[in-house]
Design a protein that fits this description.
The complex is a heterotrimer. By secondary structure, chain A is mostly helical. Chain A is 41% helix and 5% strand. Chain B has helices spanning 13-21, 24-33, 47-66, 76-85, 90-117, 126-148, 153-165, 173-181, 188-219, 238-263, 293-301, 305-317, 322-325, 337-357, 365-390, 400-404; strands at 36-38, 235-237. Classes of the chains: A mainly alpha, B mainly alpha, C alpha+beta. Chains A and B meet through helix 1 and helix 8 of A and helix 4, helix 5, helix 10 and helix 14 of B.
């Protein structure tokens, strides 16, 4: 019986293996540089300190152009910030609210329940201010790009002078990891651009890793709960499989 | 049938009271308890039950997801992300539902493959087989519309490309397309009707599954030998033998499912579907969900628009007439040496098409797709009809019990009601 | 399905019964655990629980007037009470009321009454906010659905409602501003 089971799973495995990896679909292959994150692997979790630094990088650098409209300030509690810290961060921005009793929209200080304030009121405004390129929303960016956080890290660290013979269009920048290699975004990270409170040196690599960690958390805040639950459920099912197989053997003992 | 209370054998007085008035317990006992089932099923026969459980999982998670989803172009994407972030266990529901679709297709593809390999489509099970093809078509429609609902880039452009297929038909094509869209492009009316139909079709599937099982219980199941049971020595009661075996298979299936949901929930998805739909920007490389890739490859293998569409639909519609294309009296490929090779090659062609469908429409994939497409149809339209006449099958065993029981089992003529050989 | 193997045992040895029992129990636990996420998903989501508090500017509300504001999808009645209304509310011995409560326990500043505008009977919104509305026999609110009368402290005085109008959590952020929630 196990032979046929194996056959069945060989079919499943074959189906899965035959699936083209989405990353390979883009035509010319770009190989991302190796980078390790705290959330790699089956049991990986988010490095809270790194993610907090990443939030600081986002707030002080990326947020000038990139929205994260699906994230609320209250979500930062999950990164280990206190209620007071979250309220303080939220109150630094002005959020449009209204209409009031006179029918006018007005601005008020942000609250923890507010979504991250977007730098531009709409996509058209964002394009107009950015040389007709739309800075993508970063809420789920690691799920929306092949390679995920590793791609973000590669992109942040992948700026260089174009190789000989490659001309870069007006207003574009050369990045070896961007599909097509010409990206409108100027190199966003420069050494010592931010001051980390915990004394971590603000190298481009450190900032890139931290912001990639933060964005990975923003895209998959459920990751730790999901994996923890998955381990328990699979252990449970493995025991149940053993029991079910024993029951099946017993019942079938007289039928062979 | 006689009027009056049913003569119930049930022991429990409450059960008996109900059973006398509405004999559902007698029916369950007959159809799932003592139902005589060939004793020689292998694990491929688990996949029907798995598909049934999978359908239930999809309906349950779908109903609860629909409580939080908003079918509007401006809100759909955000409402899905809200499910992922804010709704209690919303991420679990959504990942089970999304990966459940993939699991459903894996299970059903294996179920169909088993039917083809062991000749389950042949007389007297033609209608059973055709109902199965109907279920598969409904599944495809449901899955396609479900993929549109998150309103990401692949949702939008997949919907645009697939609905535009219908424009290939002469005269009525454009009319059908605007009927599907409810406008001049894939837009809010499209999303609304897709949501409505995506909610409806699973219940239609439940209905056809019921008919599928009714038909199954008239003819009885096929088996790996493809010969009919000749008496009680060839069968076992469904319960507890196959309930126990199906339960074990079910747990294994859950483990595979759990690995996907908890550790690779987006492995089978496409990153572009986490980019909100944008009617002005087409993704560099539009691919459908993996389970549609073989048909997508067939579509692209044909240089003519209408021809491609016809061949794509034909690749599944041909299954309807499979019982009449394959006229060999022998069901199981175990006893058909030539057809067996031809069918395994067909399986390879199917997997090659699945692979090519996910690759860009350029060489060498176009040529490979064309060869695989040609073989796909040749198998059904040329090879099977010819082999039905020309092939010399291997000798069939006298009976199931003679073939599978150690020590040979009783002869079919023997009177033994229940073989007692120990394993 | 997994439990079904436990039911019949044609040659039931004790070991097999025990095995069946353990397997069935495991499967039952599994089925029970599956049900929980479904039920939990229907409880308020985290963004709903985190819903913003509502600020109300009191300065524009003249004495004797009332405003209705939304908070958590419910109407909140804010009434600027007159001296006569306060006196009326405080002259009643609380012991005689269906739901005894002093007026002092229901307000933070005497002239401002803040209550959730939902009748405690079956959830209708009582009348009495607009000057033209009937205010019932006790000058507060009157619920037209089943005839509950509330007084100027929002307490139930007559009719089927079992409890006084609920007082939401709120705080004065300045002399003329409150934040509900």
């Amino acid at each position: 019986m196990f032979r046929t089971t194996l056959k069945a799973f060989a079919v499943i495995g074959g189906l899965l293996a035959a699936l083209p990896s989405p990353a390979g679909a883009a035509g010319d292959e770009i190989h991302l540089p190796p980078v390790r994150f705290s959330f790699d692997g089956v049991f990986g979790t988010y490095d809270r300190a790194s993610a907090q630094r990443g939030f600081q990088v986002y707030k002080e650098v990326c947020a000038a152009c990139h929205a994260m409209r699906l994230i609320s300030y209250r979500n930062l509690r999950e990164l280990g910030l206190t209620e007071q810290q979250v309220a303080a961060i939220a109150s630094q921005v002005q959020i449009q609210d209204g209409p009031n009793d006179e029918g006018q929209m007005f601005e008020r200080p942000g609250r923890p329940s507010d979504r991250f304030r977007s730098p531009f009121p709409n996509d058209a405004a964002a394009r107009a201010a950015n040389n007709n390129s739309l800075p993508p929303d970063l809420s789920v960016i690691t799920k929306a790009r092949a390679g995920g956080a590793a791609y973000i890290y590669a992109l942040m660290t992948g700026y260089s002078e174009p190789p000989a013979g490659v001309t870069v269009a007006e207003g574009m920048n050369y990045n070896q990891y961007f599909p097509g290699h010409q990206i409108a975004m100027a190199p966003p990270l420069n050494p010592d651009q931010v001051q980390f409170a915990d004394g971590t040196p603000a190298t481009v690599e450190n900032m890139a890793r931290d912001v990639a960690t933060f964005l990975q958390w923003a895209a998959e805040p459920e990751l730790e709960q999901r994996r923890g639950m998955g381990v328990k459920i699979i252990l449970f099912l493995t025991v149940l499989a053993g029991l079910a197989y024993a029951v099946k053997r017993k019942i079938w003992a007289d039928a062979h | 049938m006689a009027i009056g209370l049913h003569n119930s054998d049930m022991k429990n007085p409450v059960v008996r009271w109900i059973d006398q008035r509405m004999p559902i317990f007698t029916m369950m006992q007959k159809e799932y308890g003592s139902f005589p089932t060939p004793r020689n099923f292998n694990y491929f026969w688990n996949f029907g039950a798995l598909a049934m459980v999978n359908l239930m999982i999809m309906i349950a998670t779908g109903i609860f997801l629909a409580m939080h989803y908003t079918p509007h172009t401006t809100l759909a994407f955000d409402s899905v992300e809200r499910i992922m972030r804010d709704v209690n266990f919303g991420w679990l529901m959504r990942y089970v539902h999304a990966n459940g679709a993939s699991m459903f297709f894996i299970v059903v593809y294996i179920h169909i493959w088993r039917g083809m390999y062991y000749g389950s489509y042949k007389a007297p099970r033609e209608l059973l087989w055709m109902l199965g093809v109907v279920i598969f078509l409904l599944m495809m429609a449901t899955a396609f519309m479900g993929y549109v609902l998150p309103w990401g880039q692949m949702s939008f452009w997949g919907a645009t490309v697939i609905t535009n297929l219908f424009s290939a038909f002469p005269v009525v094509g454009q009319w059908i397309v605007s009927l599907l869209w409810g406008g001049f492009s894939v837009d809010n009316p499209t999303l609304n009707r897709f949501f409505s139909l995506h909610y409806l079709l699973p219940f239609v599937i439940v209905g056809v599954v019921f008919l599928h099982i009714v038909a199954l219980h008239i003819t009885g199941s096929n088996n790996p030998l493809g010969i009919e049971p000749k008496g009680p020595q060839d069968t076992l009661p469904f319960h507890p033998y196959y309930t126990a075996k199906d339960s074990f298979g079910l747990v294994i299936y859950f483990i595979v499912f759990a690995v996907l949901v908890f550790f690779a929930p987006n492995y089978l998805g496409h990153p572009d579907n986490y980019i909100p739909a944008n009617p002005l920007v087409t993704p560099a490389h539009i691919v459908p969900e993996w389970y549609f890739l073989p048909y997508y490859a067939i579509l692209r293998a044909v240089p003519d628009k209408l021809g491609g569409v016809l061949l794509m639909f034909g690749s599944i519609l041909v299954w309807f007439v499979l019982p009449w294309l394959d006229r060999s009296p022998v069901r199981s490929m175990r006893f058909r040496p030539l057809a067996r090779i031809a069918f395994l090659l067909w399986t390879v062609a199917f997997l090659v098409l699945l692979y090519c469908g996910g690759k860009p429409a350029e060489e060498p994939f176009v040529t490979i797709s064309r060869i695989a497409t040609a073989y796909y149809f040749a198998y059904f339209l040329v090879i099977l009809p010819l082999l039905g006449r020309l092939e010399r099958p291997l000798p069939l065993p006298e009976s199931i019990s003679r073939a599978v029981l150690r020590g040979g089992g009783p002869l079919p003529a023997g009177a033994a009601a229940k073989p007692m050989e120990k394993a | 399905m997994a439990e079904s193997g436990a039911a019949t045992a044609s040659d039931g040895t004790p070991r097999r019964d025990f095995l069946n029992l353990v397997t069935a129990s495991f499967a039952a636990v599994g089925v029970g655990a599956i049900a929980w996420p479904f039920i939990a998903s229907m409880q308020p989501a985290r963004d709903v629980l985190a819903l913003a508090s509502t600020d109300v500017e009191l300065a524009p509300i003249a004495e004797g007037q009332a405003v209705t504001v939304m908070w958590r999808g419910k109407p909140i009645f804010v009434r600027h009470r007159t001296g006569a209304e306060i006196t009326a509310a405080r002259d009643v011995p609380p012991a005689q009321l269906p739901d005894p409560a002093t007026d002092q326990s229901r307000v933070q500043k005497d002239q401002w009454l803040v209550v959730i505008g939902i009748c405690t009977h079956l959830g209708c919104v009582p009348l009495g906010q607009k000057p033209t509305d009937p205010r019932g026999e006790y000058g507060g609110w009157f619920c037209p659905c089943h005839g509950s009368h509330y007084d100027t402290s929002g307490r139930i005085r007559k009719g089927p409602a079992p409890r006084n109008l609920d007082v939401p959590q709120y705080a004065f952020t300045s002399d003329t501003k409150i934040r509900i929630g």
